[in-house]
């Protein structure tokens, strides 16, 4: 199973938008043929990620959410998505907000595998994040 994490929190699944680190701005001007491309680098544009993970119980899932919330406004952390470090020596991730996805924190009847076997709780959360330069 690939590693997915934000700070010390590991997930079974972490969904990110495209172009989290590098964006391209296309510049055109009326009356001038062609276009210019500008690479923005790590400019600190907020983005959303969605995490999914099992928990030992429903209370454990709610406890995880409370721990996630403690990251809001704290020192930046590292992120790994599908075994690929999103943050590197020059960037880290700040958590601007995190909330459960409506109806996606619940008790499981039973499960096998996962990060907290046997997992009887489940949580899906939406994270509001921003990459910050650390240099």
Summarize the structure.
The chain has 1 helix and 10 strands; from the N terminus they run ββββββαββββ. It has 135 residues and is mainly β.
Write up what this structure looks like.
The chain has 135 residues and is mostly beta strands. It has one domain. It is 9% helix and 44% strand. It is built from 1 helix and 10 strands, in the order E-E-E-E-E-E-H-E-E-E-E. The protein has a 4-stranded antiparallel beta sheet with strand order 2-1-7-8, with no helix packed on it. Strand 4 and strand 5 form a beta hairpin. The longest helix has 12 residues. The model has no long low-confidence stretch (mean pLDDT 84).
Question: Strands, helices and their partners?
Answer:
Layout: E1 5-6, E2 9-10, E3 13-15, E4 24-27, E5 36-39, E6 47-55, H1 58-69, E7 79-81, E8 84-85, E9 91-107, E10 121-133
Antiparallel strand pairs: 1-2, 1-7, 3-6, 4-5, 6-10, 7-8, 9-10
Note the main attributes of this structure.
single chain, 135 residues, mainly beta, 4-stranded antiparallel sheet, 1 helix, 44% strand
Rounded to an integer in angstroms, the radius of gyration calculated over CA atoms is: 18 Å
Average pLDDT: 84
What percentage of amino acids are in beta strands? 35-45%
Q: Strand order, biggest sheet?
A: 2-1-7-8
Q: Residue share in helices?
A: under 10%
